[in-house]
Amino acid sequence: MKPVDTKYVIIIQCDIAHRRCSGFACTNAFYDKEEIFEKYGDDIRYISFTCGGCCGKGISAKLEHFSKKLRSKTNIKKDEAAIHLASCMVTDNHHYDRCPHVDYIKDIVSKKGYKNVVEGSYISKNAKSKREKSIYNSY
Ligand code: SF4
Ligand code: SF4
Question: Which domain holds residue 17?
């Protein structure tokens, strides 16, 4: 899907990281169109929620709820939504290493009909530098 077609951006955060993080940096990066969000236009809706906790199974019900609202309250289609798996889920970072359940979560997201899945959200400069120096793992 071309980025221009995206009408809704959903960031799925690691539930464990979210206990210590308000999600501010991700939201800020989205609205400031930083790095991975650079391609998106100005009129895109945005929401973030967590995976629901290990093993990520809870994302199924959350996406089901989101899909119902998307259908009843908007005219936006699932293929016009982009799902970002937050950096705290997909990278080695300050909190911990990449989530061991990423593939499982991706399968659920795909089964729920969302095909536009992107790995990453806000990128911490410090964590990026540590990945470049191999202090943190890279994927
Ligand atoms: S990537 Fe960072 S800012 Fe975004 S939700 Fe995860 S811990 Fe919070
Ligand atoms: S399933 Fe992964 S992303 Fe979700 S809480 Fe557990 S470690 Fe974090």
Answer: 8-132
Strand order through the sheet with 117-119 = 45-50, 8-13, 81-85, 117-119
Residue pLDDT, tens place only, 52-109: 999 999 999 999 999 999 999 999 999 999 999 999 999 998 888 999 999 999 999 9
Domain membership flag for residue 138 = no
Residue of the nearest CA to atom 6 in ligand 1? 88
CA of 120 to the centre of ligand 1 (A): 10
Residue nearest to atom 8 of ligand 1 (CA): 23
| CA atoms of 133 and 87, how far apart (whole Å) | 18
**DSSP summary character for residue 63:** H
Phi–psi pair at 13, nearest 5 degrees: -100, 155
pTM of the model: 0.94
Mean pLDDT of the chain: 94
